[in-house]
Amino acid sequence: MKKTTRIPTPEFFVIYNGMEKYPDKKVLRLSDAFRSPTDVPSLELIVPVINIAKGHNEELLRQSAALSDYSAFVSLVYDSLAAGHSRDEAIENTIHFCLKNGIMREYLKRYGSEVRRMLSMEWDEEVYREVLLEEGREEGREEGASARALEIARNMKAEGLLAETIARITGLSEETIASV
């Protein structure tokens, strides 16, 4: 066996800057999203989430001008939206304010059009709900198809067909067919 190549230890983290109430720090685990949880997953990813929204983790923001500016930028967009501006107006108002007041100035000069495009394409809550609803429908279809395959397998088994034939037709395993 060849010698293991050593690599730098990866670090993952998420920066949260939304409008909903969220703790200063939280830990997310990939295994929390598994459909079939297990005590010892064969794959785990633990990711700290750091809230940089207005009023959170201010010591951290003082240590990083880039992070502080980004937090201020997002907060200004949210404030403009709360004041009744459309998303496009809020983005434009914020970009102009930031350029004038030295917040992310160099970045916005260089990448302002990409920032506009990215923020304009951001999902809104209605789109998010539609996506969740469609995912739920798809999951329901899959569960229905699985239940139908089991029903067909039961009927075929009752007619005396071999498990191998039933498996080939339904796509179920022979072990599953034996248990129906």
Features:
180 residues, mainly alpha, 3-stranded mixed β-sheet, 57% helix, elongated
Q: Would you mind describing this structure in some detail?
A:
By secondary structure, the protein is mainly α. The chain has two domains: 109 residues, no CATH class; 54 residues, no CATH class. The chain is built from seven helices and three strands, in the order βββααααααα. A three-stranded mixed beta sheet has the order 1-3-2, with no helix packed on it. α2 packs across α3, α3 packs antiparallel against α4 and α5 packs antiparallel against α6. It is elongated. The relative contact order is 0.06.
Quick take:
By secondary structure, the protein is mostly helical.
* Number of DSSP E strands: 3
Count of domain modules: 2
> Which sequence of strands runs across the widest sheet?
1-3-2
Largest sheet: number of strands, sense, barrel closure: 3 strands, mixed
Return residue spans where pLDDT drops below 50 for at least 5 consecutive residues: none
Question: How far from one another are the termini?
Answer: 45 Å
The radius of gyration is 26 Å
Question: How big a fraction of the residues is strand?
Answer: 5-15%
Mean pLDDT: 90
| Overall 3D shape | elongated
Tally of helical runs:
7
Helical amount: 55-70%
- The helix-and-strand class reads mainly alpha
